[in-house]
Amino acid sequence: MIIDTHCHLDDTQFADDLDEVVLRASKGGVKGIVIPGADLHDLERAQTLAHRYEHIFFAAGVHPYHHDQYDETVLRRFLEDEKCIAIGECGLDYFRLPEEAEAMVQEKERQKEIFRCHVRLAKELQKPLIVHIRDANDDSKRILLEEDAGVIGGILHCYNASKHLLDLADHGFYFGIGGVLTFKNAKSLVEVLPLIPKDKLLIETDAPYLTPVPFRGQRNEPFYTRLVAEKMAEVLEMSVTDIHDLTTKNALFLFKALEKIKFDTI
């Protein structure tokens, strides 16, 4: 059994065959899926999907690229839903910053401000965070520690293999491992993976993006979590079954609401 802790099923790439995608994943052992919120305009669709399928849940948040959308009143409305089990994805992304110096500083400061808002909301509502970090390790870690985010914890989505972030495991954070692990240029992640405490490992796809080998370049989907599990088993010298059991146990511990799923009926 596998739980895909980060899957954008609300993406338009799944509009034509969503039922088939969900069924294929279920038959392949994916018994739980979390749709992360990234854009306020997509939250209603994520919510609808979560209520259509018993084993699908969603999170509400604003991706750092869309920080200008942040509206706490709107977020709270979705966060009241019992199937909304996390806050995010949120965080910092410095990959595409303005070239002009002053604009760059303003963009970074605004992202940091909105990230802090997400963390404080998560602590207030007691829902874990789904954290996006790209080219912003130092600032992201500083905010998580300064805001005492460890009291609620969460996931470092698409963990970027930075050893600098590893000690966040001691502050309640889990590490989302996805298709990148199977890429030929994933040497750093392969080397760091054994350093992550096993009770902090999670599986994700980030579908429809970051499709694992040998399907890289095609649309990703939750069925491909099996390929991530197989690569994790190889790197960690464990059985695939043990990887399934371990990551599922970790996901259930982080997301208590997932325990309500009647797995034997899916």
From TrEMBL:
Which molecular-function annotations from GO does this UniProt entry contain? DNA nuclease activity; hydrolase activity, acting on ester bonds; metal ion binding
The record, for PROSITE patterns, names: TATD_1, TATD_2, TATD_3
One Pfam family name is TatD_DNase
Q: What UniProt keywords apply to this chain's record, in alphabetical order?
A: Hydrolase, Metal-binding
Q: Where does a divalent metal cation 1 bind?
A: 6, 8, 89, 206
Task: Give me the residues that bind a divalent metal cation 2, please.
Answer: 132, 157
Does Hydrolase appear among the keywords?
yes
Supply the InterPro entries for this chain.
DNase_TatD-rel_CS, Metal_Hydrolase, TatD-like, TatD/YcfH-like
Q: Give me the Gene Ontology terms describing cellular component.
A: cytosol
Q: Which SUPFAM superfamilies match?
A: Metallo-dependent hydrolases
User: What family is this?
Assistant: Belongs to the metallo-dependent hydrolases superfamily. TatD-type hydrolase family.
> What name appears for this protein in its UniProt entry?
Hydrolase TatD
